[in-house]
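Field log, afternoon session.

UNIT: design team B
ACTIVITY: writing a sequence onto a fixed backbone
BACKBONE:
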């Protein structure tokens, strides 16, 4: 089988400014066209993946795939990955990742007994060995004007995302485990386990685990995608992160932070990207249902709501955290607490176990109390049934 791609000869880290993004970026320069025959030289089963793919890339069971640099799927192409395939990446940090660009799709549908695994090729793998999976869609983001076709660019790779199509379809991922991914160039330019940029609600994200990542587990940059059955194990930054006006839903989320790894928040939730501005004039406001978050006592926060973010949360278990729910009015004139006043932010049926400070809200523009935020009955909180839906395809 032949795959046409543009081979990457030059990969540089360049600090650059653009209309919507002033973070450092990995910029890809494509200088030639090459044909690679699957199987490599001498009949080897190892297929190296790197470059800009301008035709569908159909991976096959029985091949050993090795990501050696950025793998970029161009508009109009599809990356097809069969159930049970293991894809490995050279441990070169953010210089190796998979990106589904605007107009491209990924079809990676494993099963509970035959999941797809993306992992490190290191002998002794560790967090940050490679850059993870990036998907760029055309759904709205609030860092551009509301209803605009303007786009922003990703923190790494300088890839376009955003638009005015909430029904963007960037493909389907199911029963996928991403291991040892993520990493940062600096404090503003990072890759996560799964980075979802302006991904729309016709995209399927279901049964996905991020395992031992260097940065965030899942990060949602705007968009409308509805994701479910998400697992994050030992993310070294935030487990679930959103910004830029994310307004989808998250259903059945399981987060565990073990004591041998440093962590930030289980959920870190920004209403907009404070490096830019809220040009769209609205905030992140997803619906989150059936959640279990387990900390390590040293973990700072289970839920950190800031930069105007809203959110409706229900059926939540919070265990072993210093702080449970934290609300911050950190952006003048764009109060996070206003979401509580307007009825756009609440938690219903929440059980705190071994949490030192269940509710923290200091110096807010709108004085609120725990009773204004948390409703229902802790006895009704069951969290997510991870033991059932997480069986077989996840790892501890």
């Amino acid at each position: 089988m032949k795959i046409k791609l543009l081979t990457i000869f030059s990969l540089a880290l360049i600090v650059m400014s653009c209309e919507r993004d002033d973070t450092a970026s990995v910029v890809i320069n494509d200088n030639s066209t090459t044909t690679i025959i699957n199987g490599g030289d001498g009949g080897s089963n190892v297929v190296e993946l790197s470059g800009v793919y301008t035709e569908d890339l159909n991976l096959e069971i029985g091949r050993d795939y090795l990501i050696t640099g950025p793998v970029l799927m161009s508009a109009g192409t599809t990356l097809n990955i069969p159930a049970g395939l293991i894809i490995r990446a050279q441990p070169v940090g953010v210089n190796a990742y998979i990106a589904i660009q605007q107009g491209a799709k990924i079809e990676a549908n494993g099963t509970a007994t035959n999941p797809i695994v993306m992992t490190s090729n290191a002998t002794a793998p560790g967090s940050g060995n490679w850059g993870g999976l990036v998907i760029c869609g055309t759904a709205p983001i609030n860092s551009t004007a509301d209803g605009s076709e303007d786009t922003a660019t990703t923190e790494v790779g300088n890839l376009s995302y955003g638009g005015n199509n909430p029904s963007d379809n960037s493909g389907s991922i199911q029963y996928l485990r991403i291991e040892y991914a993520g990493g940062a160039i600096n404090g503003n330019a990072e890759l996560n386990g799964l980075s979802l940029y302006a991904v729309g609600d016709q995209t399927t994200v279901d049964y996905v685990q991020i395992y031992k990542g260097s940065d965030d587990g899942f990060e949602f940059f705007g968009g409308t995608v509805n994701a479910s059955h998400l697992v994050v194990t030992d993310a070294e930054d935030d487990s679930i992160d959103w910004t830029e006006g994310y307004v989808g839903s998250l259903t059945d989320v399981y987060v565990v932070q073990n004591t041998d790894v440093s962590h930030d928040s289980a959920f870190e939730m920004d209403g907009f990207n404070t490096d830019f501005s809220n040009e769209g004039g609205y905030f992140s406001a997803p619906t989150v249902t059936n959640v279990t978050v387990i900390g390590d006592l040293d973990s700072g926060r289970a839920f950190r709501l800031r930069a105007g973010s809203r959110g409706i949360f229900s059926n939540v278990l919070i265990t072993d955290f210093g702080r449970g729910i934290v609300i911050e009015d950190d952006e003048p004139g764009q109060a996070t607490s206003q979401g509580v006043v307007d009825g756009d932010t609440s938690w219903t049926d929440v059980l705190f176990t071994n949490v030192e400070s269940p509710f923290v809200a200091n110096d807010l523009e709108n004085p609120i109390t725990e009773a204004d935020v948390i409703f229902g009955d802790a006895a009704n909180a069951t969290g997510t049934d991870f033991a059932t839906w997480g069986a077989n395809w996840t790892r501890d």
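LOG NOTE: Helices lie at 338-341, 370-373, 386-389.
NEXT ACTIVITY: expression trials, pending approval
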